[in-house]
């Protein structure tokens, strides 16, 4: 059998997904293996690197088994991974820490200190990475200051994707895309930034070898290849980060096209041909390839907020869903859609996990504003859905200032499965929303980049030829006007409460310290 299939592997926050695609973009088989987020202390978020590596192996195996394709039919694998993770490993390549992931806010003090320094703005302009606890730079500053023994023992500082590739190939390599999200990479030179390294207190040899996102590795360890049902010499494309690959995977790669992904977290992104940063420091700039750069903004608070509300306040919906054999989210969203736009005067600032773009303020906190006796669970669900989208829209406002008018939105991530949520996005943004057949855009993007890397397609723009649009949602002009007014209130709420967010976060920090020492 000729080699006609590509595997996209997406190492995400809650699970690793592997999808077998044909060269026409059709799905042949899928695998999905989950893992836990470990919260050893408030504001901390970690994961077990070995659990994630095991999930990668199992997900690929499940996808190949489901596809029922032979080893010789697999042309290449491409990898996508979440950004901003940090693992310290010793001289024997043994992890000294769990993976400190993007949702971790332990470096908030180091972040605030860095924000007060004169170099902050120039550092952002060179690296394209706003100063925030999500940044690997501030994580390293935290480790150096508070976990000195581990910091000095570490021979390498790597991300979860680097950990996976080391297990497969015994090589420490990092693609420009993952590297560009660390805050350590000089975007113009495509090399480690000397001043950023000095701030972090590390040397360039403690980081992995920089390679293009189209870099191909061969010669995987035989035992891992056998478990995954692939040949050891199968080309493995290192790939890029999940955000930029989501753009590629949904075909949002031309001017005026935006990809919006909402899963556990969320992001808004568009592609430009050279590195582009924002004088107001609202957006990131990450590499897709050396000739394709993705600018945008990530949000901490996507579907994780709806999950929090489900787990704490929606037991009736959960029990009913069990009896009916349906997803409880479907019942929650149906209930929310029975409430009028604006949730009858209830607004949600969904900052339960702090926030990244556009404010980059880890001290923000969640807020329900306008609560009245007439509000019930359905109102709160609607307000949460709208609040998540309001925050995503605020990133879109920043993008339009940098790149011009946005003409089209392509949706991906778990939320994109919901017809109601896609229509809500169209009404709130006032822009047509398109739903590609492959809603897991990052996995497909990884497969497309693999196709490009081994010459199966001539140009990344060919990705659009492989994508079938299954739904189109036109905005309702009446609702667009309503949401425009509500967004103004939403923005003023944040601006008026910014100092109070900082105050309550400081109070919480002190309360935790008092509890620990008592």
Automatic annotation (TrEMBL):
Residues 5-249 form the Carbohydrate kinase FGGY N-terminal domain. GO terms for molecular function: gluconokinase activity. It comes from the Bacteria. GO terms for biological process: D-gluconate metabolic process. Gene3D superfamilies: 3.30.420.40. The keyword Coiled coil does not apply. Keywords: Kinase, Transferase. Residues 259-453 form the Carbohydrate kinase FGGY C-terminal domain. InterPro entries: ATPase_NBD (IPR043129), Carb_kinase_FGGY (IPR000577), Carb_kinase_FGGY_CS (IPR018483), FGGY_C (IPR018485), FGGY_Carb_Kinase (IPR050406), FGGY_N (IPR018484), Gluconate_kinase (IPR006002). NCBIfam families: gntK_FGGY. Belongs to the FGGY kinase family. This is Gluconokinase. It comes from Gloeocapsopsis dulcis AAB1 = 1H9.
């Amino acid at each position: 059998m000729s080699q006609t299939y590509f595997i996209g592997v997406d190492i995400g926050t809650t699970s690793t997904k592997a999808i077998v695609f044909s060269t026409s973009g059709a799905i042949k088989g899928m695998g999905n293996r989950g893992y836990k987020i470990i919260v050893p202390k408030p504001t901390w978020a970690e994961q077990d690197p070995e659990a994630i590596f095991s999930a990668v192996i199992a997900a690929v195996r499940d996808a190949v088994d489901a596809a029922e394709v032979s080893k010789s039919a697999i042309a290449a694998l491409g990898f996508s991974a979440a950004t901003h993770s940090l693992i310290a490993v010793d001289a024997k390549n043994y992890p000294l820490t769990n993976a400190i992931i993007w949702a971790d806010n332990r470096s908030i003090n180091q972040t605030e200190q860095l924000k007060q320094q004169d170099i902050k703005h120039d550092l952002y302009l060179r690296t394209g990475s706003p100063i925030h606890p999500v940044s690997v730079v501030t994580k390293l500053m935290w480790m150096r200051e508070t976990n000195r023994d581990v910091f000095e023992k570490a021979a390498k500082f790597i991300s979860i994707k680097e950990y996976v590739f080391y297990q497969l190939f015994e090589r420490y390599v990092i693609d420009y895309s993952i590297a560009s999200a660390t805050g350590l990479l000089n975007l113009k030179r495509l090399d480690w930034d000397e001043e950023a390294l000095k701030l972090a207190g590390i040397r360039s040899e403690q980081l992995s070898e920089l390679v293009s996102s189209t870099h191909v590795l061969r010669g995987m360890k035989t035992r891992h290849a056998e478990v995954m049902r692939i040949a050891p010499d199968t080309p493995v494309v290192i790939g890029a980060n999940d955000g930029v690959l989501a753009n590629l995977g949904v075909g949002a790669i031309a001017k005026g096209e935006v990809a919006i992904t909402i899963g556990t977290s969320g992001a808004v992104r568009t592609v430009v041909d050279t590195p582009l940063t924002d004088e107001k420091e609202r957006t990131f700039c990450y590499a897709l390839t050396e000739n394709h750069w993705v600018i945008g903004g990530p949000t901490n608070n996507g579907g994780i907020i709806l999950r929090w509300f489900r787990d704490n306040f929606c037991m009736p919906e959960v029990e009913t869903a069990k009896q009916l054999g349906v997803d409880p989210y479907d019942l929650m969203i149906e209930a929310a859609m029975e409430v009028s736009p604006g949730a009858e005067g209830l607004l949600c600032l969904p900052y339960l996990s702090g926030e990244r773009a556009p404010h980059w303020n880890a001290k923000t906190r969640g807020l329900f504003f306008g609560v009245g006796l007439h509000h019930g669970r359905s109102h709160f669900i609607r307000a949460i859905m709208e609040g998540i989208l309001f925050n995503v829209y605020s990133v879109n406002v920043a993008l339009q200032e940098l790149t011009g008018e946005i003409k089209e939105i392509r949706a991906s991530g778990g939320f994109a499965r919901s017809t109601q949520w896609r229509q809500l996005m169209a009404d709130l943004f006032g822009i047509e929303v398109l739903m590609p057949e492959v809603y897991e855009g990052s996995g497909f993007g990884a497969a497309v980049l693999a196709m490009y890397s081994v010459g199966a397609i001539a140009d990344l723009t060919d990705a659009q030829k492989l994508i079938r649009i299954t739904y189109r949602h036109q905005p309702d002009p009446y609702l667009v006007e309503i949401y425009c007014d509500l967004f103004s209130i939403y923005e003023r709420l944040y601006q008026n409460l910014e100092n109070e967010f900082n105050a309550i976060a400081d109070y919480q920090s002190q309360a935790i310290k008092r509890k620990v020492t008592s």
